[in-house]
Specification:
Mean pLDDT: 80
Keywords: Cell membrane, Membrane, Transmembrane, Transmembrane helix, Transport
Largest sheet: none
Subcellular location: Cell membrane
Oligomer: single chain
Domain ABC transmembrane type-1: 95-304
InterPro entries: BPD_transp_1_N, MetI-like, MetI-like_sf
Shape: globular
Protein name: ABC transporter permease
Order of helices and strands: HHHHHHHHHHHHH
Length: 314
């Protein structure tokens, strides 16, 4: 187990370095100058040069990356160009908002999707299977922003059950805060449940075709016992891997949902920083998401032997 953990950690470090380099280079290929945006198109060239020097933008990319990377290794992601706040503090505060939405949505999706996928596999090519697969395919096909707008239109405007615009922290007023989080959570839940249902169904079908399942049925075990005692654990492995990928992807892709529902989370911070060409915030957000993604998948890899002990024998 220790060697398995070291191997996964060794694979994670180069990934983070590649992400850091890619993020640093790609955001500087975006047209626009932060200093120009701050001072305006009619800014004095001398003042513009002074601001670029103050922000360190007059140096070469290699020097800028070395300075930023050195500070990032010490946990210092710099200071926001537009607000002057420490980037790490800004990212952590916004991350807590996004985490509430993403984690709850994934937990709900797993609770619903895994049993639904197993039922679909158990009733293969019958009405429950066709209905669940059809619903899953439809939900996967719907873009998250369009699904969010539909929820806003129906539950916010037509029925007036939930607030349409704004955000209240759960820490400030938990009842009102939960109302503001319902539709963002439901949007991600409905979108991801389709992916998880299809994976749970596919992995369960694969397990149900194995010889030991046939042997269990030949011993006279009920279908419920076969599914719960024998099929569930072995079929949950691939789904567990997908859960880690979904969790990481949602943290990176929650920007659309937060923009639709005006939620001040990490994704909304990233979108605003891109428009303002706030390099430290963009770099900090993307590097933070990459770290969370890598750590999430590391935890998934370390837990995988619980479902398939053969992994440790590799």
């Amino acid at each position: 187990m220790f060697r398995f953990t070291l191997n996964r950690l060794a694979m994670a470090l180069p990934t983070l370095f590649i992400v850091a380099v890619a993020v640093f280079v790609l955001i500087r290929l975006i047209p626009g100058d932060p200093a120009q945006l701050l001072l305006g198109d009619l800014a004095d060239p001398a003042r513009l040069l002074e601001l670029r020097t103050h922000l360190g933008l007059d140096k070469s990319w290699l020097v800028q990356f070395g300075v930023w990377g050195g500070h990032a290794l010490r946990g210092d992601l710099g200071v926001s160009i537009t607000t002057g706040e420490p980037v790490l503090q800004l990212v952590l505060s916004r991350f807590m908002v996004s985490a509430q939405i993403v984690v709850v949505a994934v937990i709900l999706a797993v609770i619903v999707a895994v049993p639904a996928g197993m039922i679909a596999a158990w009733k293969q090519n019958r009405l429950p299977d066709l209905a669940l697969v059809g619903a899953a395919t439809l939900l996967v096909s719907l873009p998250t922003f369009w699904l969010g707008l539909l929820l806003l239109l129906f539950f916010g405007l037509k029925l007036d059950w939930l607030p349409v615009v704004g955000y209240v922290s759960v820490m400030t007023d938990w009842k009102t805060g939960l109302l503001y989080l319902v539709m963002p959570i439901m949007t991600l839940f409905l979108h991801e449940i389709g992916v998880l249902i299809r994976m749970a169904r596919a992995s369960t079908l694969e397990v149900l075709r194995l010889d030991y399942i046939t042997h269990a049925r030949a011993k006279g075990l009920s279908e419920r016992a076969v599914m719960m005692r024998h099929a569930f654990r072995n079929s949950f492995g691939p789904t567990w891997t997908l859960i880690g990928l979904v969790l990481g992807n949602l943290l990176g892709g929650v920007a659309v949902v937060e923009t639709v529902f005006t939620v001040p989370g990490l994704g909304r911070l990233l979108v605003d920083a891109i428009f303002a060409r706030d390099y430290p915030v963009i770099q900090g957000c993307l590097l933070f998401v990459a770290v969370i993604y890598v750590l999430t998948n590391l935890v998934v890899d370390l837990c995988y032997p619980l479902f398939d002990p053969r992994v440790l024998a590799e």
